[in-house]
Amino acid sequence: MTIRKRMHLAAHFPGVNNTTVWSDPRAGSQIDFSSFEHLARVAERGLFDFFFLAEGLRLREHKGRLHDLDVVGRPESVTVLNALAAVTERLGLAATVNATFNEPYELARRLASLDHLSGGRAAWNVVTSSDAFTGENFRRGGYLDRADRYTRAAEFVATAREIWDSWTPDGTPRPFSHHGRHFSVSGTFDVPRSPQGHPVVIQAGDSEEGREFAASAADVIFTRHGTLEAGRAFYADVKGRLAAYGRRPEELKIMPGVTFVLGDTAAEAQEKADVIREQQVSPQTAILTLEQVWGRDLSAYDPDGPLPDVDPDPQGRQTQGRVPLGDPFAVAAKWRALSEAKGLSIRQTVIEATGRQSFIGTPRQVAARMEEFVTEEAADGFILVPHLTPGGLDDFVERVVPLLQERGAFRTEYSGSTLRDHLGLPLPVWKG
């Protein structure tokens, strides 16, 4: 009898990205608690491992004005998850919190509190920033060089773990003391050890530094590799780094962020996907995206016309608070080649070049394709990013999850109560 490898699933609350469709009549509030609650309850009904919240520390700007695709008024992530802990029972609760503009003791305390209130279901998605624009919101400012982001983040995670480990497994508090390059802290922690030892650590980053950081310190890595080939290469690379840190492959779960579109037939699903992409990239969004690459004001260009014949301005910065799409000359050359080969307009080029729809087809086709990624070691599971708030996950849970269960590729019930139980992660070894 063949034993299938079971996948892990998580739900990403949509928002600050090029995936969300704001104009759909079914789209709801991005900030009302009812929206967070709906998506979380659906994810738990689908037996997902965790609910994932992204977060930004400053509203992005484009040409000096608020970015049209940003969310104004989004509540702070850990606060939302504490509220969700009261309306869910098993679902993991993952908060994105920046390691550049926070401090270890304060954050360790907030996350340990969430871990206790939820019965051991907390996770921390560690992100970094070297952006001086974001840093203007903080006393320290954006002084960190890009190369220092991960050294601070690695020490931050290590310090937080030292603080969590200052309580013994039998419930005895002991003083902690850490003195390093970025942090010098000591004292006694006031939150006992949680049911899962300490929160699960998630890391999002595909750079060389990010991969090494994930191999050394993360329990889950959130990636963007949408193709089977790219996923297998990334999976082998990151898993291959674990031994250097005394870790086994199963101690790090690789979960790419993916989208999905379902239809009763493959043709219907593709038609829906095409419509969604047009909704995601309006004419205005197409020009805005192009300006991020070209570093120039391109508002005079027709989104239904050809790409600009001028070169990018590498010193130009139209958007603040958003990660650049890459080397502007390389991206522009790639987009020009795509446009010329297929006769695409600006909007059509942006739609095709920035598309993130990973799984398109009937529920049975999507279930089979997802299982293939896991079986072929391109992923351990997926973080689903729906295009609608808050009901974008409903169809997947109703139509795809039962098929994954039928195939033996996904759980039929929760076997434990903590997030580490769901992910099959061992309890952290106490290092008191």
TrEMBL record:
Coiled coil: none annotated. Gene3D superfamilies: Luciferase-like domain. It comes from the Bacteria. Residues 24-374 form the Luciferase-like domain. This is NtaA/DmoA family FMN-dependent monooxygenase. GO terms for molecular function: monooxygenase activity. It holds the Pfam family Bac_luciferase. Its EC number is 1.14.-.-. Keywords: Flavoprotein, FMN, Monooxygenase, Oxidoreductase. InterPro entries: Diverse_substr_monoxygenases, Luciferase-like_dom, Luciferase-like_sf, NTA_MOA. The keyword Transferase does not apply. Belongs to the NtaA/SnaA/DszA monooxygenase family. SUPFAM superfamilies: Bacterial luciferase-like. Residues 301-323 are annotated as: Disordered.
